Amino acid sequence: MKPHTTVLIVPTGIGAAIGGYAGDALPVARAIAAVTDRLITHPNVLNGAQLYWPLPNACYVEGYGLDQFASGQWQLQLVQQNRIGLLLDAAIEGDLRGRHLQAADAARATLGLNLTSYVVTDQPLQVTLQQADSGATWGTLANPGSLLRAAERLVAEAGATAIAVVARFPDDTGSAALDSYRHGQGVDPLAGAEAVISHLIVRTFQIPCAHAPALSPLPLDPTISPRSAAEEIGHTFLPCVLAGLSRAPQFVTAAADAITASQVDAVILPATAFGGSAALSFSAAGATLIAVSENRTAMAAPPAPLGIKAVMADSYLEAIGILAAQRAGIDLSMLRSPIPSLQPLPPPPSPS
Description:
Blueprint: E1 5-8, H1 26-33, E2 38-41, H2 43-46, E3 58-60, H3 63-70, E4 75-77, E5 84-88, H4 94-111, E6 115-120, E7 127-131, E8 137-141, H5 144-158, E9 162-168, H6 176-182, H7 191-205, E10 209-214, H8 238-246, E11 250-252, E12 266-270, H9 277-285, E13 288-292, E14 310-313, H10 316-327
Parallel strand pairs: 1-2, 1-12, 2-3, 5-6, 5-9, 9-10, 12-13, 13-14
Antiparallel strand pairs: 4-11, 7-8
Helix pairs in contact: 3-9, 4-8, 5-7
């Protein structure tokens, strides 16, 4: 019997009610991992700053790589351990850089992770943050070439098979957007820019990558939301990134034992976030798509207007039940009442 494979997607930077904060979709991922043989998801779901959870059957796949996987261009090759190269933005101040290096050394000494040498970019990356009227966020880099040159050194000189990036992000302590995010509302102001950084490296080098922003510590606020609290408890968000990258699958174009998009049984997304390429690709490939209504977002892309057939679920609890039934080989309509009687095929047309 083939492994039951589920993809869990919560797009980055769209203000998802669940998964739009600091690792707050991780409980969902843990529950799904218990009812499927293989879970494929992305850093936005599994990263919780200082917090993470080892899921032996989960694949940590960066968003651009997930899009390529969904389209059938790339496959996922499981690994025992990656050699992680650490890439630091030259804009990070000395003390803050030291904290990130301490986090990297702690991951080596405490978790046994394999990190190569680190490299500092030859120019500051100069990250800027943007937000659309819809609330969705994105960002830009003034010096993307510096990012790619540093990544190339890690691959060519240090033999890195995965890259963790720490870029200096703008401190915006007094902004209304940050205040809303810390209190469990609005959109993560950093998420869109983080995706730009990791996408660029994965697209160029075809290896796993994830990003942790470098920020000055925020003043203590005892009223912040539990969904945002993971980002308040340390000097760096790097630990979850290193833990995820340590066993992130490699991207390959053809391998006999690699995971392919055709093996995916189910894909779970927020009900208003079906406009991405992965959702469209998985729909065309015949996977069962599950739309979760309770996970509200700043987007307005439900499946039906896009021509995507999806099973509607009110909550992730219901979606998990759908997965359990699918894995057991049970027709979902048999779990509802009443059950209609079996009907005959219509008679064939009369011969002319």
